[in-house]
Design goal:
Helix content: 40-55%
CATH class of the largest domain: Mainly Alpha
Strand order of the largest sheet: 1-2-3
Structural class: mainly alpha
Strand content: under 5%
Number of domains: 4
Shape: elongated
Distance between the termini: 90 Å
Radius of gyration: 29 Å
């Protein structure tokens, strides 16, 4: 039997390239597309497209699915390993006899042990567990967790973890992922959730960004307005006013060289006064993680340069 090793360039082949026959057989068991007349294997990596199943609810769709769950990069084994359930029941739902439960207990124990083998895998499992804890404490979305896990995995592949604490690298990966996904968090917030010193997180983050060539744009004050206004209980009008103030400040280059959180806090403070939803400097400072002095300095600059009539 003749055989073509390379995959066909077109998805649908109407006739055999050898003899021109149109009698083609789709052998899904072997994954081959074969000419019935001359026996030429046209494609040895043929994909079973199968019929289109109709499903009317998620449960029915799951039952009819022919593939497994997607890869989960936040798990050490990417979610591919099996787990022996804690219930003492077999696949039919029948209770397992008492004489076999000791054996089942040993199987569970060894299954847990062999899921993680080697120092690097144990390191990864510990780090991803810490990553999940930090993300849960900070209420970060799923995409940020996966981005942080990918950053940490790349660091492990390049052997950048050696000589550094797992907690520090994990916290730095979370900070980098927040920047990548447009969900900025300050170093102080990361430090509070991870129990790692702020300076260590910043130092490790700069190291990872340099070695992994992470292309991260600087955070802007606008990125913080949504969250700060939500925590202060301000309305959409106040939020829109704060964004307008920041836009005008950027046009006059008043935000250059200044911390984005401080500028955002000052703009929100001014907007709250202009919109009749006054918040004290202490309240805004506590939410933004800056001092009252910073807010006063930034607020005076913005009010003078933008000719804002703010009545205290």
């Amino acid at each position: 039997m003749k055989m073509v090793r390379k995959k066909a360039e077109v998805e649908e082949i109407e006739k055999c390239p050898e003899c021109g026959s149109t009698h083609l057989i789709q052998d899904y068991e072997r994954g081959e597309l074969v000419c019935q007349d001359c026996g030429l294997v046209i494609d040895d990596a043929y994909i079973d497209q199968g019929p289109e199943w109709r499903a009317f609810d998620p449960e029915q769709r799951e039952k009819r699915a022919r593939t497994g769950a997607p890869l989960d990069y936040t798990a050490a084994d990417k979610g591919l390993s099996t787990v022996i359930g804690w219930k003492n029941k077999d696949s039919y739902g029948k209770s397992i006899p008492t004489r076999n439960r000791a054996q089942l207990y040993r199987l569970r124990k060894w299954q847990r042990r062999i899921r993680v083998g080697g120092a690097s895998e144990r390191n990864l499992a510990s780090a991803l567990s810490e990553l999940d804890r930090i993300s849960s404490n900070m209420g970060l979305p799923r995409n940020v967790r996966e981005a942080a896990a990918m950053v940490y995995r790349r660091a492990v592949e390049k052997n950048l973890i050696r000589g550094r604490s797992i907690e520090g690298v994990t916290a730095a990966a979370v900070y980098a992922a927040c920047r990548q996904c447009g969900v900025p968090r300050t170093l102080d917030e990361i430090a509070a959730a991870s129990k790692v010193d702020r300076k260590e997180i910043g130092r490790t983050y700069r190291f990872l960004a340099r070695e992994l060539t992470l292309k991260l744009m600087p955070t802007s004050p606008q990125d913080y307005v949504e969250r700060f206004c939500s925590e202060l209980g301000l309305s959409e009008d106040t939020k829109t006013k704060a964004l307008e103030i920041l836009r005008q400040a950027e046009e006059k280059e008043l935000t250059s060289g200044r911390g984005p959180t401080g500028v955002a806090a000052a703009a929100i403070y001014i907007a709250s006064i202009l919109c009749g939803e006054r918040r004290t400097q202490r309240e805004v400072a506590d939410v933004a993680g800056v001092t009252e002095v910073t807010i006063r300095n930034r607020y005076k600059e913005l009010a003078e340069e933008l000719d804002l009539d703010v009545v205290l």
